Amino acid sequence: MLVNDWMNSPVITIDVGDSMQKAVDLMHDNSIGILPVLENGRLVGIVTDRDLKRAAPSQIALFEIKDILYQLAHVKVADIMTPNPITVRPDFTIEEAAYLLRGNNISGCPVLDHEDRIVGVVTKNDLLNAMITVSSIPQKGFQFGFVVEDRPGSIKEVADVFRAHHIRVMSLLSTFERAPHGSRYLYVRVFNVNREKLEDLKRDLSLKARILYMVDLRDGTRDTYASY
User: Fold this and answer.
1) How confident is the model at residue 59 (pLDDT cuts 50, 70, 90)?
2) Which of 6, 82, 113, 115 sits most deeply, having the most CB atoms within 10 A of its CB?
3) pLDDT value at residue 52
């Protein structure tokens, strides 16, 4: 999946010469935490809710309301923005975007097309929603975790067991990360499981791979068969 499919667009922006008050109003009225800052239509910075909190009076009790309003109206976005923000392209994968956000400890970033025009904003919540969707978790079903041999065909053998039991395979995820040498972890989400024949299914699966766990997302039942 690509950032283009999950970013927020059209994007709400603010001009470099606008006031801090306008930034506060835009974030509040649109329930957003990130505002790309433009100068003559080009991205020059970014303002986040964290920037606004940092720029606001630290001891509000010491300020009269009129003084707070004066500060909000006269402090410019240019004074509080983060210049040269991290950006991504619309054709970045969501994994690339998530890796970039985590590596830079940021909650989101602008999306620029290949002519450096801003076309959206992507946040950690957008990427989380993407991962939840691809996992099909809202549709419940079962998730199985396995250790499989790292060889051609090992994943297909597990998938074939599900198909032989007339079970619908919705998603497969495999990784070498932290897996035993010569193996990989495999996570499979499935639907249409006949619970009366669950023991037969687990028996047939155990002939093809080591089962780590099984979670029934319909009722929360979960069994762990082997440690990681």
Assistant:
1) very low
2) 6
3) 84
Which residues are bridge partners to 189 per DSSP?
Answer: 143, 171
Tokens 């029934």 correspond to what residue? 216
Which residues, including other chains, have CB under 8 Å from residue 30's CB and lie 6 or more apart? 12
Rounded average pLDDT over 104-131: 94
Q: Is 32 exposed, middle or buried, given 0-12, 13-18 or 19+ CB atoms closer than 10 A?
A: middle
Q: In angstroms, how far is CA 50 from the centroid of its own chain?
A: 20
Torsion of CA 75, 76, 79, 83, to 10 degrees: 150
Q: Nearest-CA neighbor of 198 among 214, 209, 186?
A: 214
Q: pLDDT at position 69, please?
A: 65
What is the chain's Cα-based Rg? 24
Q: What is the pTM of this model?
A: 0.76
**Residue among 35, 32, 1, 23 nearest 125 (CA):** 32
For residues 87, 90, 91, 97, the Cα torsion angle rounded to the nearest 10 degrees is 40
Q: Which two tokens stand for residue 220?
A: 């929360």
Sheet holding 14-15, edge to edge: 14-15, 34-39, 42-48, 82-83
